């Protein structure tokens, strides 16, 4: 599966989104989730990512979320201005997975990404990993977006997709190159 992108340019959410709570507002090519919304129009592996691009924020209650099964079970990545955090909501109870003091700030155009592979979670700001942890409570689910504080934050773009690992594997043996190491020795003098 290729990555899926939504730039929220329509007058409302497209049919690929499922709203679990709240009433999202789509306007001017951006969305304010006002709750939890997940991407169900495509099939996602359990190892996936959720990425959001911020337009503006007067509050910081919006998050990229992964392995969402319902409004009470998911992982989320949050930056509160001084700390990058990965939390989980399991059965309606919040718990920290990881917290890293990094002195960050929310700015227009910032890109937040949360990815999960197996039990490994990684949070990124503008392509740089800023927080990571492990947890095994949630094994399945889909990516999405949440806004805890019903804020005026707007998200310009959402991207989700599978985690693709870089591999140095050559599957075609005819393209393999065999190199021999030749050691040169100087003559022995007596």
Describe this protein with a few key phrases.
15 strands, 190 residues, mainly beta, seven-stranded antiparallel beta sheet, globular
Describe this structure in words.
By secondary structure, the protein is mainly β. The protein has one domain (4-164): Jelly Rolls, CATH 2.60.120.560. The protein is built from no helices and 15 strands. The chain has strands at residues 4-6, 17-22, 25-27, 30-32, 35-39, 48-56, 62-70, 73-79, 83-90, 93-101, 111-117, 120-125, 128-134, 142-147, 154-162. β7 (62-70) and β8 form a beta hairpin. The termini are far apart.
Q: Could you give a short account of the major beta sheet?
A: 7 strands, antiparallel
The class by helix and strand makeup works out as mainly beta
The name of the CATH superfamily reads Exo-inulinase, domain 1
Query: Radius of gyration, rounded?
Result: 22 Å
* β-sheet strand percentage: over 45%
User: Can you tell me the number of structural domains?
Assistant: 1
């Amino acid at each position: 599966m290729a990555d899926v992108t939504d730039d929220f340019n329509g007058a409302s959410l497209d049919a690929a989104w499922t709203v679990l709570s709240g009433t999202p507002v789509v306007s001017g090519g951006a969305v304010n989730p006002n709750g939890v919304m997940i991407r169900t129009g495509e099939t996602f592996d359990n190892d996936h990512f959720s990425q959001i691009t911020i337009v503006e924020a007067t509050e910081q209650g919006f998050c990229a979320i992964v392995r969402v099964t319902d409004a009470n079970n998911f992982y989320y990545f949050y930056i509160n201005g001084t700390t990058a955090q990965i939390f989980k909501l399991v059965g309606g109870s919040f718990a920290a997975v990881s917290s890293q003091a990094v002195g960050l700030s929310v700015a227009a155009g910032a890109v937040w990404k949360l990815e999960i592979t197996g039990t490994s979670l990684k949070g990124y700001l503008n392509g740089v990993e800023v927080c990571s942890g492990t947890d095994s409570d949630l094994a399945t689910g889909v990516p999405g977006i949440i806004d805890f504080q019903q804020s005026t934050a707007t998200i310009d773009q959402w991207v989700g997709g599978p985690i693709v690992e870089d591999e140095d594997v050559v599957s075609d043996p005819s393209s393999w190159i065999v190199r021999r190491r030749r050691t040169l020795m100087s003559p022995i003098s007596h």
